[in-house]
Amino acid sequence: MDKKDLLFYQAYEDFYAMACESKAFELFCKDAFGADFSQDGFSDLHQIDMILQNIPEKDNIHILDIGCGNGKMLGYLQKKTGAKIYGFDYSSNAIKKAKELFVKDSEFKEGLIGEIEYPKEKFDLITSMDTIYFAPDMSKFVLQVMSWLKTNGIFFVGYQEGDVIPKTENVKTAVLSQILDNNNIKYQVYDITKQTYDLLAKKREVALLYKNDFEKEGHKDWFDLLMMQTECTTEPFDSFKKKMARYIYVINK
Ligand SMILES: C[S@@+](CC[C@H](N)C(=O)[O-])C[C@H]1O[C@@H](n2cnc3c(N)ncnc32)[C@H](O)[C@@H]1O
User: Fold this and answer.
1) Residue 175 Cα to chain centre, angstroms
2) How far apart, in whole angstroms, are the C-alpha atoms of residue 50 and residue 79?
3) Residue 3 neighbours by CB distance under 10 Å
């Protein structure tokens, strides 16, 4: 498979090129999400701290992030826990930066969802923030990820419907819930649609604060994109939630 033909491939190459050099974007992430992990989604510090609560307190922990971007979220988890960190992403700009930033106890690879392989029973925790729905076959990919987890390991997923994949009726009908139910996989799920709406509104407010900085850097196109991505918060939450839903899944092996 030629990755250049995949959904948003060039857009992510451009995004990570910008994220790796832009001071305005770094400041935007700090103010909007509580920390700069070069987020292109919704992973604020509150959600990342939920991940931390699912990391066992023992030595020699291995954590994999699917769609890791430039690795900054993994770097934060490593700083907090001392874990060995692994990540993959199809963006070569992102992986190049991750390798520069995090050299100790780390392994970053350029790779594609559905093609990359890891050893079975390798990881204590696998995370995937707003990435799993890029899988060409989500059901197959979920089972593959579960095989990479140790027994009692956790797969932590930030999952959205209404953007890359269509919105279904409710959390029970969500494609990921259906896959897990059909395969008798145990999980807890948290509906964070309202928190996501509030976060998008905050992203919009903070982006407006840094508008001039984006422009001075020659990154007005990214400011415009942030405005477009957050336009949905100009409508009330009741209409927003009819079109979009976001859930956190804590999946147990
Ligand atoms: C919505 S972003 C989320 C990034 C990051 N996890 C976050 O929370 O900000 C999706 C990520 O998945 C990567 N990605 C998209 N499709 C992919 C694929 N088919 N294989 C590997 N990575 C992919 C993108 O480069 C991007 O880093």
Assistant:
1) 17
2) 16
3) 15
Nearest CA among 53, 52, 51, 24 for reference residue 38? 24
Tell which atom from ligand 1 comes closest to the C-alpha of 38: 9
Q: Give me the domains of the chain, ranges plus CATH numbers.
A: 3-252 (3.40.50.150)
pLDDT in tens, 58-75: 899 999 999 999 999 999
What is the best residue among 15, 89, 137, 163 to mutate for testing ligand 1's pocket, by most ligand atoms within 8 Å of CB? 89
Provide CB contacts within 8 A for 243, sequence distance 6+. 162, 167, 232
* Residue 140 CB neighbours (<10 A): 12
Which of 47, 96, 134 to mutate for ligand 1's pocket (most ligand atoms within 8 Å of CB)?
134
Atom 16 of ligand 1: nearest residue by CA position: 134
Round to whole Å and give the CA distance between 200 and 112: 28
Q: For residue 174, give both structure tokens.
A: 């969500």
- Which of 132, 184, 186, 126 is CA-nearest to residue 158? 132
pTM for the predicted model, two decimal places? 0.96
Distance from Cα 3 to the centre of ligand 1, integer Å? 13
Tell me: the pLDDT tens digits for 9-38? 999 999 999 999 999 999 999 999 999 999
